[in-house]
């Protein structure tokens, strides 16, 4: 009889321990998976951390860089009584900000950390060489964009030709979808400066203009 009572008591204690453990685990904060963030250099990067648990709304949250640097929360939002979202914003990021980051939370029930996610910073592309002159007339210039070699990151989704009179202040820009481009309706015997602009995906994806081609139209 004593053995049966001892076994029954042990069973009850085990059940109570499991219930308590489940309760505490449900109350303690934890995160949904944190995803990588990719932005172009000079833009703002935003990580969104989502914490779950019954007391998630009372948690303290911050973003932590791999080197231990802490980034304060920029915005918080209650999704429901069991889920809490916090946004963290890194301003005008550069390549030096590219690193691993994770979410950290603290509450009365304990602490929680997310997986490390990567901040990927892409450099907008810029041609290494100036356009090449293929043909010239009194009112036109035929150029090759010469934009296969770049500084920065691809893929290239847009190519543009930017040109102006070297003696003027105005500038015109035209999208180009071929390796060559003909500038029409130019003034005879006039010097022009021509550059190429390249754009990659994402906000702020247009790089600085490449080196200029400076050339002159023929006399009429």
SSE layout and pairings?
Layout: H1 2-27, E1 30-31, E2 37-40, E3 45-52, E4 60-65, E5 70-71, E6 75-80, E7 83-90, E8 99-107, E9 110-113, E10 117-122, E11 126-127, E12 132-136, E13 141-144, E14 150-151, E15 158-165, E16 172-176, E17 180-183, E18 191-199, E19 213-216
Parallel strand pairs: 2-10
Antiparallel strand pairs: 1-3, 3-7, 4-5, 4-8, 6-7, 8-9, 8-10, 11-14, 12-13, 13-17, 15-16, 15-18, 18-19
What is the count of DSSP helices, taking H or I runs of 4+ residues? 1
Shape: rod-shaped
Largest sheet: 6 strands, mixed
Question: Structural class, please?
Answer: mainly beta
Mean pLDDT comes to: 86
CATH class of the largest domain: Mainly Beta
Reported by name, the CATH topology of the largest domain is Immunoglobulin-like
Q: What is the number of independent domains?
A: 2
Helix content: 10-25%
Whole-number radius of gyration? 30 Å
* SSE order, one letter for each helix or strand: HEEEEEEEEEEEEEEEEEEE
- Taking the alpha carbons of the first and last residues, their distance comes to 119 Å
Q: Indicate the low-confidence ranges by residue numbers.
A: 8-13, 16-25
Number of strands: 19
